[in-house]
Amino acid sequence: MAATDRATLSRELIADTALRIIDSDGLGGLSMRKLGSALGVEAMSLYHYIENKSDLLDAVVDNLYGEIDLPTDVPDNDWEPAFRQGLRSFYDLLLKHPAALELFTTRPSSSANALAVMGWAFDRCRMAGLNAREAAETFHFCVAWVLGHVASELGMMARVDAGEPAVISNAAAVDPDFAAFLEYNTGSRSELFEVGLDLLFSSLASSFGLSRQ
Questions:
Q1: Is the CB of residue 76 less than 8 Å from the CB of residue 178?
Q2: Does 200 fall in a domain?
Q3: CB of 110 within 8 A of CB of 118?
Q4: How many domains does the chain have?
């Protein structure tokens, strides 16, 4: 990368470049020296914008929250379509940046972009008729479910390799229905995500008495 003029450096640009390094080299591959080299500046120049590596990771997380595409044109009473779009955007972001899963689960979520996402979710919940506690429960439930699904999809959670013929054969000999269960469980993760969304919103509607469009 060509040398970056000191005057063009910004916290956002530094965080964006750090994320590209993380995407290619993993979290362990990020260093201030490598980041400075990618920006064409001395590593010490970065400390005018970033306090330390921990602060750098917080800036990366803030940029990630800013990438979540939250719908603003869905009618106020259509809580489910709005949440579906928001959760799909979060899901796509996590798959695009695999290291984001660890960052979202280990870094504080009090940055400007994080609070904007939570504010959007709270407003949507309030429009649906939920109180503050119900909105918090809904937000936690939705976010935790997406994080768990993505962890499974990225192979970070152990699961039976039902693609092995012997596994299915042995299971079928004991219980054909269990063998079918194993096969379904190894289906398209994106399809299972959509099925999961249906179950999630059905549960929320039932729990809080919400109408579904």
A1: no
A2: yes
A3: no
A4: 2
| Cβ neighbours of residue 158 closer than 8 Å, sequence gap 6 or more | none
Comparing CA positions, the residue from 95, 111, 24 lying closest to residue 60 is 111
Would you state the structure tokens that stand for residue 192, as one six-digit string? 């299972």
Runs of H (alpha helix) within the chain = 11-25, 32-39, 53-67, 79-96, 100-106, 112-128, 132-153, 165-174, 176-185, 189-208
Q: Are residues 142 and 181 in the same domain?
A: yes
Residue 52 gets which letter from DSSP?
S
Least confident range from 5-19, 25-39, 152-166, 193-207: namely 152-166
Residues 138-164: tens digit of each pLDDT? 999 999 999 999 998 887 654 555 455
Please compute the mean of the pLDDT values over residues 3-31 and round it to a whole number: 89
Q: In the chain, what's the furthest Cα-to-Cα distance? A: 69
192 and 102, same domain (yes or no) = yes
Does residue 60 belong to any structural domain of this protein? no
